[in-house]
Amino acid sequence: MTNATIHPDVHVGHVHLRVSDLERSLAFYRDALGFGVFGDGRPHGIPAVFLAAGDYHHHIALNAFGGEGAAPSDPERAGLFHLALVYPDREELARAVRRVVANGYEIDHATDHGGSVSVYLADPDGNGVELYYDRPREAWFEADGAPVLRADRIPIASLL
Fold first, then answer.
1. Distance of alpha carbon 102 from alpha carbon 100, whole angstroms
2. What's the CATH superfamily of 82-160?
3. pLDDT tens-digit readout, 45-90
4. What's the pTM?
């Protein structure tokens, strides 16, 4: 086994989610979270839509490859716990939370992790979604250099 580490510029390019209702999920990711539609496979017989923030080819792909109405994943089994979307600052996170609520979706809770502040909710198929912003890097570590590991629940209203 090798001891090589991954290059520091590697990052997660996109998440591909199998959904049970493409239109319903598209409404969530497009309207409530604000992603733009980059590509739509449906006119070509491909049950998939590709969404992005900005001009990237896609950050999130939604597909109904299992067929419309497919059963959601079992939360008691291994699989996706949540996808996380990082916002540039507290103001943009608050704006995102207001948009989610205005579109009729429920926020589960908000958590101060020390180095970041997160808001948690579920998409229409029950996949976890974390919306968060990072505090400045110096807030990520304790005085002794250990990473800050907290999960203090905070009122969602405190973000707004």
1. 6
2. 2,3-Dihydroxybiphenyl 1,2-Dioxygenase, domain 1 (3.10.180.10)
3. 999 999 999 888 889 999 998 777 777 777 777 778 889 999 999 9
4. 0.89
